[in-house]
Amino acid sequence: MISSNAFDYINVLDKAADASALRNQLLANNIANQDTPDYKRQDVDFESQLQQALKNSKYTSIDSKVSNLHMSRLKPKVYTDYENYSYRLDGNNVDPEQEQIMLAANQIKYEGLMDSMTQEFKNLETVMK
User: Fold this and answer.
1) Residues 110-128: pLDDT tens digits?
2) How many CB atoms lie within 10 A of CB 75?
3) Is 44:77 a contact under the CB 8 Å cutoff?
4) Is residue 1, in this structure, part of any structural domain at all?
5) Does residue 2 sit within a domain?
6) E strand segments, 1-129
7) Minimal CB count within 10 Å: which of 29, 72, 80, 107?
8) Does residue 76 contact residue 22 with C-beta atoms inside 8 Å?
9) C-alpha 117, offset from chain centre
10) Mean pLDDT throughout 30-43?
11) Is position 26 within any domain?
12) What is the largest CA-CA distance in the chain?
């Protein structure tokens, strides 16, 4: 069997895209619950986990860091944001305008990840020709 790191970046991009899709769901859920009393907004943390996973050594190339990632440990974590905070009398902490902005920014990030994955596959296709 041939060992290849050809899909390392694609695997990381795939995990990031999954986290971004999950974030879209959570942001949409926050918007849907903007009038629900005592609802607390939820979000997902993936970037800090990826950043931590890539911090192996400052003298290691990014290619080496990506190829040594443990993909099973790289999972998005859902958390409740500002659990004890509410700026409204009903206990809800969702700011609908802020959620819309974050949703738009996250959509742009998701599309960028998809474009990057497409480019990685095109690169592999070019190499195979």
Assistant:
1) 999 999 999 988 988 887 7
2) 12
3) yes
4) no
5) no
6) 42-45, 77-80
7) 72
8) yes
9) 14
10) 95
11) yes
12) 63
